[in-house]
Amino acid sequence: MTSSFSSALCLALALLSLVPSDATAAAVPDPRPAPIHFPIHRRLAKREVSDYGGIAQGIRAKYGRLPQGGSTEKRASTANIPTTNQGEDSTYFAPISLGTPAQTFNVILDTGSSDLWVATNQCTSCPAGISTFNPSSSSSVTVSSQSIQINYGSGSVAGTLAQDSVNMGGFVVQNQVLTLVTDTTTDFLQPPISGLMGLAFQTIAQSQATPFWQALANGNSFSSPEMGFFLTRFNGDQNAQTLEPGGAFTLGGTNASLFTGDIDFVNIPSGVTPSFWLLPLETVQVNGKSATIPSGNAGLAAIDTGTTLVAGPTSAVQSIFAQIPNSQPLTGQMDGFFAYPCSTQVTVELNFGGSQSWPISNADFNLGAIDNTGQMCVGGIFDLDAGTNGAAGSPSSGSPAWVVGDTFLKNVYSVFRSNPPSVGFAQLSSAAGGSSGTSGGTGTAKVTNPGDPLPTTSGSSAATIIAPLPSLSALSIFTLLSCLSAAWLLVGI
Question: Where is the catalytic site (predicted)?
Fold first, then answer.
């Protein structure tokens, strides 16, 4: 996709956001706002097939898998700490505003983590070219003396806990706890990304703070307690730019123009405390043949927009590739991956206990040839436990057996619902060929719910939730500015 096409697409989205939908115009007034729809962008890293070995290591670390011989003590405080390997993965991100007056930053949208963090102007190890938050310029910030470090498979970020006003698409949480990053591993952040917004549950937040989305849901700010994702596909596109339209994210509902039929919801299993967005993976079929996979809690899968691939237990991954003739395991840096003949078309279908199975297309399953001969290709499902301490990575330790990332999620419209806690999938519509910028935001709401006091604060503080104002023009400006930012980056300004 060329930069001119991307710019044209963004302009079209901005114009579309000026047009109110018929459903919104005819709706009975609701004290809660309509969902906000806005485009997300995708940062594509230039990489070789061999880079997926490093990506796999980051995913293993994210989900508590220890390298063989690794010390459990070294990971004890961070066993459930989320990770994003921004240097190697493709990442989907969107803008948020922070502070008073507002400062705007691009953050990764990650349903596999729960903390919010942003790089600050005090971060000397952060790369040039990223936007950084200046706490001194915000009249609403409260900075604590509590330091925090988040360790990742490929690096770490460190900083200080703080509270400030956070705005996403017009939804505002005041006194939101976040980490102001002052140090990061070299090359861990890459422009134009300045931070990460975790969209999983509070139970896995290292800061112990209520995540932004959960504060809004707890405050009854959404007309529907849902978040919807449509993710675009550019793998294999030789013309893809570093920054491309990444799809659409809806906060507080879904975008009906991007899917057809019903959303097939599956609840997080009873007795399982919401942490990651966990579903039971019940069946896997490869070209119509069933693979043998674990059941019950041994088969729980984390649905994770912040992860590129799909990973599973050793025996299950072996069974999957046993259904593909002439597959063979890889070794060394690619330990846990399998290669298979590039001429073989592979379709994998996953069923999470709902009414239907959902596909991984051949385009997403095939990661590319392992060498210049083009004879053998790498599959997009790898062994999550390869080269790790199996006990530390067992489902009983709180880590899921499967991680289902964008290799799968690009094939469906996915919905994350807080009440009841569940994840749903729907078939993509014919319109889901690019980003969506449909306008939203009718009615207003303001609630106060219990907040998260900073560690150095006595007593309690309150997080105030402010819903979007019913201003189509404001949302249109928001959409247009996001797209102009993408266009400037595409032309190198």
Answer: 110, 304
**Given CA atoms 185, 187, 191, 197 in this order, what sign does their dihedral have?**
negative
The CATH number covering residue 478 comes to 2.40.70.10
CB 409 within 8 A of CB 337: no
- The Cα angle at residue 308 between residues 46 and 89, in degrees rounded to 5: 30
**Which tens digit of pLDDT belongs to each residue from 28-44?**
334 566 677 656 654 44
Q: What is the pLDDT of residue 62?
A: 82
> Is residue 81 domain-resident?
no
Are 98 and 158 part of one and the same domain? yes
Q: Indicate if 385 belongs to the active site.
A: no
Domain endpoint, select from 405, 428, 451:
428
* Residue ranges with strand state E in 31-154: 36-43, 66-67, 91-98, 103-110, 116-119, 142-152
Our count of domains for the chain comes to 2
Q: Is residue 378 part of a domain?
A: yes
CA torsion, points 93, 203, 351, 433, in degrees to nearest 10?
-10
Choosing from 89, 110, 383, 452, the catalytic residue is 110
Query: 244-281, pLDDT tens digit by residue?
Result: 456 888 999 999 999 999 999 999 999 899 999 999 99
Single pTM value for the model: 0.77
> Are residues 230 and 323 both part of a single domain?
no
- Which of 421, 414, 349, 422 has its CA nearest to residue 381? 349
How many C-beta neighbours within 10 Å does residue 134 have?
Answer: 13
In a domain, 392, yes or no: yes
Nearest residue to 122 (alpha-carbon basis) of 70, 180, 177, 76: 180
> Residue 123: which domain range?
3-47+88-241+434-490
The distance from CA 487 to its chain's CA centroid, rounded to whole angstroms, is 23
Q: Are residues 223 and 261 in the same domain?
A: no
Query: Of residues 89, 164, 264, 304, which has the active-site annotation?
Result: 304
| Strands of the sheet with 283-286, listed across from one edge | 289-290, 283-286, 348-351, 358-360
172 and 309 part of one domain: no
